[in-house]
């Protein structure tokens, strides 16, 4: 199966799967496009269970996104308001 055919047949299912995890349709759409972009760059013809592979990719992409968001939120919680102040000009 070509990556293009897989995209046409699987992108909606994968988008729903990711949206359930991350809670945002736009993020889910972006993650699915990233998955297929990486697949397209590999230019692989799939002979195995493509649906299972894509499901795993979608799950991993959602988990990676949630981890990155948590890391960003944790970091921002640790930043003090005075750290946002503009730097003073040095002499």
What does this structure look like?
The protein is an all-alpha fold and 91 residues long. 74% of the residues lie in helices and 0% in strands. The chain contains 3 helices and no strands. The longest helix is centred in the C-terminal third of the chain and has 29 residues, at 50-78. It is elongated and about 65 Å long. The model has no long low-confidence stretch (mean pLDDT 83).
Features:
single chain, 91 residues, mainly alpha, 0% strand
Layout of strands and helices, then pairs:
Layout: H1 3-22, H2 25-42, H3 50-78
Helix content: over 70%
Total strand segments: 0
Backbone shape: elongated
Order of helices and strands: HHH
Q: Radius of gyration from the CA trace?
A: 19 Å
Specify the structural class: mainly alpha
Distance between the termini: 64 Å
Residue stretches low in confidence (pLDDT < 50, at least 5 long) are none
* Sheet having the most strands: none
Mean pLDDT: 83
> What share of residues are in beta strands?
under 5%
| Contiguous helical run count | 3
Offer a quick outline of the entry.
This protein has 3 helices and no strands. The protein has helices at residues 3-22, 25-42, 50-78.
């Amino acid at each position: 199966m070509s990556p293009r055919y897989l995209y046409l047949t699987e992108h909606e299912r994968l988008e729903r799967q990711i949206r359930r995890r991350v809670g945002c349709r736009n993020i889910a759409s972006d993650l699915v496009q990233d998955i297929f972009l990486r697949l397209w760059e590999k230019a692989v013809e799939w002979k195995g269970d493509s649906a299972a592979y894509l499901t795993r990719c979608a799950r991993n992409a959602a988990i990676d996104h949630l981890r990155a968001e948590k890391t960003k939120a944790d970091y921002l919680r640790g930043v003090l308001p005075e750290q946002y102040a503009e730097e003073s000009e040095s002499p």
